Amino acid sequence: MSAHLWQYVLIFAIMVVIAIAVIRSKRRDFKLEANKLVELLGGKDNIEKYEFNKSRFVVDLKDVTLANKEGIQKLGAQGIVEIDNQLKIILGDDAKQIKKYIKELKR
Asked: The pTM is what?
């Protein structure tokens, strides 16, 4: 092999390693996020009822004042609507994954 070919192979290998590192860093830990979301909602005992509707998470809380809406926004919520003791949280595509883990937590 010529010296130029080795350089291209080396550059390609480095680019693959960088791409893998970027992909892993963007991967989200949904179990950790679900735990954090429950904590931001005032804990699992504060959650009376919940349901997922596509990209939205609708949750009825015993005490809505215990919910940290700013923290939920920072966690990645695209929007939050509060009506009485109910929060409608727009989670986007992550809603299905988070639903699975919250279901496990409430057991």
From this structure: 0.64
